[in-house]
Write a structure and sequence with these properties.
With 257 residues, the chain is of the alpha/beta class. The chain has helices at 20-33, 63-81, 93-97, 108-114, 123-126, 159-170, and strands at residues 4-10, 37-40, 86-90, 130-132, 142-144, 147-149, 177-181, 188-196, 199-207, 230-237, 249-255. The chain is globular, with a radius of gyration of 18 Å.
Length: 257
């Protein structure tokens, strides 16, 4: 018997900076998509309030403000997708910064007290989600059938394909699979990988862009023209045989107008 999944996946909401209009658009789309699975590919938090950079002293919000905003956002998503929808979050680099062993951010003696899942008011919402560690390995991925989900690590223009190849090998090297990430904020439709220009490989890669701000303060003097808000919608088999013999997924990007 072949089971099918309808997956909605987003990335990079950067609480508390998620634009209200983007959140409304996302929730409206999710109510129509009716996913069986929902994934957030990381950077749930912006973590500016815990930054090592001097500019963090100028932040006009606290880490608790980030937790409050993110918990409310995730709760609204959960209400829309319904209790039967399976949910997970791949931690992003911003999320991982909150757990970094770096005394310039949060001293070791305080990390357990300020961890988002331990927060006395907002931690309950975060504990309702399955969190995947930020790690460039199989352990840092979430897999559904032929689809491999992770946050992303590099930002170069060719990094989607390069990291896609790396993750295909890290998760067994099997053919006919799709690598899906966020991180760069640049949405990209499912695209086949190539060894050379004339030698296609049996793998695809996809980037779901960002549901966060499109022109944050740290990018004022940098190019964000390729950034975009979007949702990845993927339908696939949930079976995970050791070998696939054909493409068993369909993927598209829903871009915010």
């Amino acid at each position: 018997m072949t089971n099918r999944a309808r997956i909605a996946v987003i990335s990079c909401t950067h609480s508390p900076f998620t634009p209200p209009e983007t959140e409304r658009w996302l929730l409206d789309q999710l109510s129509e998509i009716k996913p069986t699975h929902f994934g957030h590919l990381g950077d749930v938090f912006d973590a500016e309030a815990a930054s090592v950079h001097a500019s963090s002293a100028e932040a006009d919000h606290t880490l608790e403000d980030e937790y409050e905003h993110a918990a409310r956002f995730l709760s609204r998503v959960r209400d829309v997708v319904g209790p039967e929808c399976k949910r997970w979050i791949n931690k992003g680099n911003h999320d991982a910064n909150l757990e970094a062993r770096d005394p310039r951010r949060i001293p070791a003696s305080l990390r357990s007290l300020v961890h988002f899942q331990s927060h006395p008011e907002f931690g309950e919402e975060f504990r309702r989600w399955c969190w995947v560690d930020y790690e460039k390995s199989k352990r840092g991925t979430f897999q559904i059938g032929p689809c491999v989900f992770y946050h992303g690590f590099d930002c170069g223009l060719s990094s989607d394909e390069i990291e896609g190849l790396q993750m295909m090998y890290a998760t067994g090297g099997h053919a006919w699979r799709l690598a899906v990430r966020g991180h760069t904020h640049r949405p990209l439709e499912a695209t086949q990988m190539f060894r050379t220009k004339k030698s296609p490989l049996p793998w695809w890669y996809m980037n779901v862009g960002t549901c966060g701000p499109l022109k944050p303060g740290y990018m004022v003097r940098k190019d964000t023209s390729l950034w975009g808000s979007s949702i990845g919608v993927i339908e696939c088999s949930t079976n995970r045989p050791s070998r696939y013999t054909s493409r068993e997924f369909d993927a598209q990007l829903l871009r915010m107008p």
